[in-house]
């Protein structure tokens, strides 16, 4: 017999907000959701992603705006999304706001990343490249023939260091 998977419970405060009838009560619960539940998650996600404190403030504001819009849509029945894990939902919204700002600020970066991904996934006329997961979950790319080879492609110390810790090299 397999164990029953643990499903995160919907935040009771979110349920109260969705069920609130009076506008004043709804606004109070929305403010509490944003300030008590969402703010720490938003801050943690955006501080990990954004480079400057001004950028964190701008992205926090944009994330709160997006959350307000989505939560009001949820309350009004416009959005049929079921939110089982409110903090996870907030983190996803914050990450999406950050990613969208990155795409807006650097459109060439997104285009380049897509082109490299297409190349590595053999979705172009160029063949022989591959994209795969390494033993520790990291992403590797290179020639298809090297996919099964040892990550240490050479004997020089620099290449060995690169294979062991690509970020530090």
The number of distinct β-strands equals 2
Count of helical stretches:
6
How would you classify the helix and strand content by structural class? Answer: mainly alpha
Radius of gyration: 22 Å
Our estimate of the beta-strand percent is 5-15%
Sketch the topology as an H/E string, one letter per element. HHHHHEEH
Shape verdict: elongated
Largest sheet, spatial ordering of strands? 1-2
Largest sheet: 2 strands, antiparallel
Helicity, as a percent range: 55-70%
Could you tell me the mean pLDDT?
83
How far do the termini sit from each other?
48 Å
Parts with pLDDT < 50 across at least 5 consecutive residues: none
Describe the model:
- The chain has six helices and two strands.
- By secondary structure, it is mainly alpha-helical.
- A two-stranded antiparallel sheet has the order 1-2.
- A hairpin with a 5-residue loop joins strand 1 and strand 2 (about 140-145).
- The longest helix is centred in the N-terminal third of the chain and has 27 residues, at about 25-50.
Which descriptors apply to this entry?
6 helices; mainly alpha; 59% helix; elongated; 169 residues; single chain
Briefly say what this structure is.
The chain has 169 residues and is mainly alpha-helical.
Provide the fold topology.
Blueprint: H1 12-19, H2 23-49, H3 53-75, H4 86-105, H5 107-120, E1 129-133, E2 139-143, H6 157-164
Helix pairs in contact: 1-2, 2-3, 2-4, 3-4, 4-5
